[in-house]
Design brief:
Oligomer: single chain
Largest sheet: 6 strands, antiparallel
Distance between the termini: 46 Å
Number of strands: 35
Shape: elongated
Length: 505
């Protein structure tokens, strides 16, 4: 027996609908309702409903795959360490904070509508170093001279294989009386590394694409470094930087695309542009311009497939240098996620402090994207009746969540709330008693009340002179069956595994 005795009590303000008691989805209550007047007679109403809110959702009638008992959620935990799909976190799993004080249930992984990657065109030189101490790294700067008379370059790639100490740097920025770097110059990295440019150690500058996955903080040429993207999501290559003017950023399954491996267009080794899931906006070099690829649109992409990037203006011979056998993106199906939806959250999870441990790894909640969550009571046409989950906020206009197909290989669709038809405290004429007079200091009772799983007992008094007391007991109940959407291929070997996205990445 879950609870017994006084289940709920309230003395609501006059003419104000009040949810006196909300039965958990896994319990029912048998009770007696007592209405005690404090000396000024007042009529009262009592109603019972099997939902919290009636939502009007977007789309055509019955457009979504929603069923009684489905879990829905718009509340997201964002985590500091990517969570691998291969860890097999099952929908409905209870997550407990490391201090054991808070809990939440896992609903599905979050995939953003797209992940943005910024692209620039940079003149890059290969610089060979000797007498190196410390470690040079992508994103660092190297400096010749002493302020205010310096020459500064940014590192876009590093090659230390086979004893080499090669850095790939962008154009030199001169300050004061600083001069261009040459062989024999001593360079100091912003990370503390030092080295001397070898004799003949400065190569000829070549225009190259460089990429940033951190909103432009660090750009990387990705030479000898994995440039991995996942087959279950979309990537938006932002080509709005002025350096991209006149450039065509393209992908191909063939080395150097339409140029072919030999770097000369018009020969038998020429490839074709990869266009599956491709969308574009604007003109490269102008504000808002991008090239986007939704890799989930190609179900034939195998794990570790290489897709080569190149410059697609084949009429200009020098542009073949943008591509090559080491200019590629690796497509992976070993999915990881930086966020996931939760429901039935208990306790106050503190960002950057609270986390949970799963399969021996601790994950810290870095931030939270608040939203409602709960369960589907019924769905017909554009009317969706929902039961709010534990501690959930009300659903509101423009809130979104994913539907829950019964077929585990089906794609989930994003549902948007167009309006709220019936609020949490509002009724649809579901009265047990209406306008019942309760005189001065009188006590009225309604006996043999049964409140089923997910049902709500709502009361109203004409004035604030009636106290409502629900006395009885709760029993566990399986009358309401909860269903979590569980995708196929939960081992990360392919297929789905994530909920849909909202907003940008």
């Amino acid at each position: 027996m879950a609870d017994q005795g006084l289940l709920a009590q309230a003395k609501p303000a006059g003419t104000t609908n009040t949810v006196l008691y909300a039965a958990p989805i896994d319990s029912s209550a048998s009770a007696v309702l007592t209405v005690a007047n404090d000396g000024t007679g007042a009529a009262y109403d009592v109603a019972i409903k099997d939902f919290d809110q009636k939502l009007v959702v977007d789309g055509s009638a019955n457009a979504y795959k929603l069923h009684t008992g489905d879990v829905i959620s718009g509340y997201r935990f964002n985590i500091g360490t990517s969570f691998p799909l291969s860890a097999n976190l099952t929908p409905g799993t209870l997550l407990t904070s490391t201090d054991q004080e808070k809990t939440a249930k896992f609903e599905s992984f979050y995939v953003p509508a797209f992940t943005e990657i910024d692209v620039k065109d940079v003149l890059i030189r290969q610089v060979t170093l000797e007498s190196v101490t410390g470690t040079f790294a992508v994103g660092q700067t190297v400096v010749k001279g002493t302020a205010p008379n310096t020459a500064t370059c940014t590192i876009y790639a590093v090659n230390t294989d086979g004893g080499n100490n090669i850095i790939y740097v962008g154009p030199t920025v001169l300050a004061g009386t600083g001069s261009e770097i040459v062989a024999g110059d001593a360079l100091t990295g912003s990370g503390g590394a030092t080295g001397t440019i070898s004799t003949g150690g400065i190569g000829t500058g070549v225009q190259e694409f460089v990429f940033s996955t951190d909103a432009g903080t660090t750009y990387n040429q990705y030479l000898g470094t994995a440039f991995t993207q996942f087959a279950d999501r979309a990537y938006r290559f932002d080509v709005s930087d002025a350096s991209m003017s006149g450039k065509l950023f393209k992908l191909s399954l063939t080395i150097n695309g339409e140029w072919g491996p030999d770097g000369t267009a018009g020969n038998s080794d020429d490839g074709t542009e990869y266009t599956t899931g491709k969308t574009t906006n604007g003109t490269a070099g102008s504000g808002g311009a991008y090239v986007q690829y939704d890799f989930s649109a190609n179900t034939g992409l195998a794990n570790n497939t290489n897709i080569y990037f190149y410059e697609g203006t084949t009429g200009t011979a020098g542009n073949s240098a943008y591509g090559g056998s080491d200019r590629y993106i690796t497509i992976s199906t070993a999915y990881t996620y930086d966020g996931f939806y939760i429901y039935d959250k208990e306790g106050t999870w503190v960002n950057s402090t609270d986390g949970f441990t799963f399969s021996g790894t601790t994950y810290t909640v870095s931030s939270q994207t608040a939203g409602p969550y709960g369960y589907v009571r019924s769905y017909s046409g554009n009317n969706l009746y929902v039961i709010k989950g534990t501690n959930s906020a009300d659903f509101a206009t423009s809130d979104t969540f994913q539907d829950a197909p019964k077929l585990n290989t089906a794609d989930r669709s994003t549902v948007t709330v167009s309006s709220v038809g019936v609020a949490t405290t509002a009724l649809e004429d579901n009265y047990l008693a209406k306008d019942i007079a309760n005189g001065n200091n009188e006590i009225d009772k309604i006996t043999s009340i049964v409140v089923g799983p997910g049902e709500r007992l709502v009361v109203e008094s004409a004035t604030q002179n009636n106290t409502f007391s629900l006395i009885g007991f709760e029993d566990a109940s399986t009358a309401f069956t909860v269903r979590n959407y569980t995708p196929a291929a939960a081992d990360g070997s392919g297929g789905g595994g994530a909920g849909g996205g909202e907003g940008g990445g």
